[in-house]
Structure formats: C-alpha cells, structure tokens
What we know:
Largest sheet: none
Subcellular location: Membrane
Strand content: under 5%
CATH class: Mainly Alpha
Protein name: Rhomboid family intramembrane serine protease
Number of helices: 11
CATH architecture: Up-down Bundle
Helix content: 55-70%
GO molecular function: serine-type endopeptidase activity
Oligomer: single chain
Transmembrane segments: 12-33, 67-87, 99-117, 123-141, 153-171, 177-203, 236-254
Order of helices and strands: HHHHHHHHHHH
CATH topology: Rhomboid-like fold
Amino acid sequence: MFIRTERSIKEFxxxxxVVSIIVIIxxxxxxxxxxxxxPIGATIFDLGIGHxxxxxxxEYWRLLTPxxxxxxxxxxxxxxxxxxxxxxxxxxxxxxPKFIFVYLFTGIAGNLGTYxxxxxxxxPHLGASGAIYGLFGxxxxxxxxxxxxxxxGSANIVTVVFVIGLVMTxxxxxxxxxxxxxxxxxxxxxxxxxxxxxVPFFIARVRVKRRDDDDIGFDPNRWKKxxxxxxxxxxxxxxxxxxxxxxxxxxxKYF
Length: 255
C-alpha cells in the first residue's frame, strides 16, 4: 500500500489528484511567504495561521486554514512526504469526496482540540499534522476493526510508524500535541461510517490508460525488456519510510 510505483509525477497526479493538489498548496503557500516574501503570502499567513484567541473572538476559519500552512521547510517536507506515502491508498479506497472530508474533518478536529484545551492562548500554531494523524487514526481503525482492508505487512508498517510518531509527539519540542491526539481520535472515530463501502487497495491497480482504445498495445521488443525486481524495496520499505521521516523530523528543528 505504501510503495510508490508511479512512473512519473503526471501519473501520480492522475491517480491521486487530491493528495497532489494538497501538496502543491503546501509548497505554494510556503514559497509565497517564506521563500519569496510576497505581500500576499504575508497576508495569507496573518489571516490563516492558527490563533486560539482570535478563534475565541469569532475568527472560526482559523480552525481550518492552519492545515495548509507551514513556515519551516523541514516541517513542510515532513508533512508533505507523510501525505504522499500514506494518503494515496486512502484516496483510492475512499474515493475523492470521502477522502477530502476525512482530511479536512480531522484537520479541523486537531485545531479544535487545541482550541478547547486553551481557548485564550496567544501562541500561534500551524501545519497539516492534525490531518496526517487523522489518516493514521483511520488506518489504525482498519488494523483493529477492518483487517479485510489491509494486508498484514501494511498493517505492521502503519502501526509501528504511528507508535514512533506518537512517542515523538511527546518528546520532541514545539509539537502541537493536542492537534496530533484530537486528529487521530477524529480519524479513528470516522472509521465505522467512512469505511462502510471501502474496497481494499491493491498495488497492482488499473493504471491510467495511455493508449488509444483501438491500439492493441503490441510491443515487439517486450521480451527484451528487463522486468522490475522491487523485492528488495518491498522488504525494506518500512525502514526506508522510517529513516526518511526521522531525517525530515530532524531537519525540521533547524529550518
């Protein structure tokens, strides 16, 4: 479920348009403020950053807008990478409308939990972590209650990565603990309803057609082509994901 076999960025976008658009939004908003220092970027961040005291005074849109905003490059890369790894399978399993609902609902839940704990706080917060943990919550529900939707290897990967992420939530500085916890709870809680008609995700999925319907697709040199042998990648995918996430997490402390 978590091995990316897309042959190009274009194919990834065609297969997972929602995940792709969210990642693009992350980078565009970050670049407008942190990289190019555009006035519109500053305005977006000023109006969109999470701020409990402002929500307390009626600026309720701030429960949603922080989900798309990042200031530190490491934080941006970490969350976007996690979304690219763990989002595609859910987008295909749930369908676009349900996936959008889960992502936004859990992101709002994370920010709402932050607000409930300290509604008059003046400390700003932002990032997609609440929504990312919402996806983890849905996956953990599958692991416990809908084993028919996940293979054992994928279940082990997502469980271990989630446990490590949960531990890091409490030991790493400057983490919005409430957003992680409430996002996860919201994702887990949506499981019984949102997964009702879900179908398992298979890596050997039907790819986007690239030939005309009247093209038989015969390749006279097909026997000369080398077959892919991703077995080593499959066996070590957990460690690859873990190492990359840890590296991005460390980078996030300094950038």
